[in-house]
Design goal:
Blueprint: E1 21-24, E2 30-34, E3 37-41, H1 43-50, E4 61-65, H2 66-71, E5 81-87, E6 91-99, H3 102-105, H4 115-130, H5 150-180, H6 183-187, E7 193-195, E8 202-204
Parallel strand pairs: 1-4
Antiparallel strand pairs: 2-3, 4-6, 5-6, 7-8
Helix pairs in contact: 4-5
């Protein structure tokens, strides 16, 4: 991912520093529409939202509630540590925590790819994003109903087709310029910045 990304935000340029925190809960939710948006509501939705702020002192972990543990099956045995989280509005929630091995073993970044490899991967990603409006809707992941009309989608497809002869060569030049930079150069933010362990933000000194 660090070799093929074309994004220059802090998170994408520091992928090797990112850590993954997963919170899993099983319950019921109510779907309701507010204008063009579909929102979730219900006690279980509040519970999993509260669990995003928990007492687990680790940069990377999997946290499950007891309800989720009964519904989730793992492909191999996992060492889960019992615990609980207390919230004023919903009370005590019993949890199970799995700490990833990478917490102790650390991370070794992959070897830098060649210019040709970086260019081909970046160009492929660019083309997939640019020509996405032409893809079949059945191949797209949509967990919430879209508010776009058929006329609006067709208009967007037509606009993309008209701009392709102009934008495709320009986009290829940007991809080539991006591929000329090594992953180390892309990640470098200069001595005036300090990045957090998860790479999510930086601040000037």
């Amino acid at each position: 991912m660090s070799q093929s990304t074309t994004c220059t935000c802090n998170a994408c340029t520091h992928i090797e520093k990112l850590r993954l925190k997963v919170v899993v809960h099983s319950g019921e939710a109510l779907f309701h529409r507010v204008f063009n948006f579909v929102e979730l509501a219900g006690v279980d939705v509040i519970i999993v939202h509260r669990l995003l702020k928990n007492s687990v002192a680790a940069d990377q972990y999997l946290l499950l509630t007891e309800a989720a543990r009964h519904d989730v099956e793992f492909s191999k045995p996992m060492h889960l540590t019992g615990g609980c989280e207390n919230y004023d509005d919903i009370g005590t929630i019993k949890t199970l925590v799995f700490l990833a091995e990478s917490e102790s073993t650390g991370f070794e970044p992959p070897a830098a790819a060649s210019f040709g490899g970086r260019f081909s991967r970046s160009l492929k990603l660019f083309c997939q994003l640019w020509f996405a409006p032409f893809a079949s809707r059945s191949n797209q992941f949509r967990h919430l109903e879209s508010g776009a009309t058929t006329f609006g989608r067709m208009g967007f497809v037509l606009l993309t087709a008209l701009l392709t002869p102009l934008f495709l060569p320009v986009g290829t030049l940007f991809v080539a310029a991006h591929a000329c930079k090594s992953p180390a150069e892309i990640r470098h933010a200069g001595p005036a910045h300090e990045h957090k362990a998860d790479g999510s933000c930086c601040r000037g000194k």
